[in-house]
């Protein structure tokens, strides 16, 4: 069976009383089922993340949908530093990582998945604690 091809089916009913006469369907087109995206943050980060500066910030999520959605991570309170952020999308898994996180990496991170059936987002807050700077 090939996607996009048209097929006619012949159906026969069968029960305890015997077999009924065959019937033919209208042409049926094979199509991949479509599902809107779902986004689920890992339970370890759903309620927010608190780490010390210098540690790795890791935000894992699971994304599903048909066709597989495009995935975009954003930082609501600022801009993601593209030189320091690594985003790995493998199968249904999407992980945003920042090695040696800095205090400026704090904020509300939003993952958005989009396909032709819709869009879905999830968000979590990251707090990065560091030694206070000098008093001015």
From TrEMBL:
Positions of the Fibronectin type-III domain: 1-33
UniProt xrefs under SUPFAM superfamilies: Immunoglobulin
Annotated Ig-like domain residues: 37-129
Single biological process term from Gene Ontology: cardiac muscle tissue development
InterPro entries: FN3_dom, Ig-like_dom, Ig-like_dom_sf, Ig-like_fold, Ig_I-set, Ig_sub, Ig_sub2
GO molecular function, one term: structural constituent of muscle
GO cellular component: M band
Pfam families with a match to the protein in the record: I-set (PF07679)
Transmembrane recorded as keyword: no
Keywords assigned: Immunoglobulin domain
Keyword Mitochondrion part of the UniProt annotation: no
Name of the protein: Ig-like domain-containing protein
Organism name: Micrurus paraensis
Lineage of the organism: Eukaryota, Metazoa, Chordata, Craniata, Vertebrata
């Amino acid at each position: 069976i090939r996607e996009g091809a048209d097929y006619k089916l012949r159906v026969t009913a069968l029960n305890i009383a015997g077999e009924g006469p065959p019937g033919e369907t209208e042409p049926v087109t094979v199509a991949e089922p479509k599902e809107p995206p779902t986004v689920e943050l890992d339970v370890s980060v759903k309620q927010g993340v608190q780490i010390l500066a210098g540690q790795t910030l890791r935000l894992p999520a699971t994304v599903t949908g048909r066709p597989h959605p495009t995935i975009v991570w954003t930082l609501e309170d600022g801009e993601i530093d593209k030189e320091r952020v690594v985003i790995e999308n493998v199968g249904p898994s999407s992980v945003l990582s920042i090695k040696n996180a800095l205090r400026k990496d704090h904020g509300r991170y939003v993952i958005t998945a989009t396909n032709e059936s819709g869009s879905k987002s999830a968000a979590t807050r990251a707090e990065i604690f560091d030694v206070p700077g000098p008093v001015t």
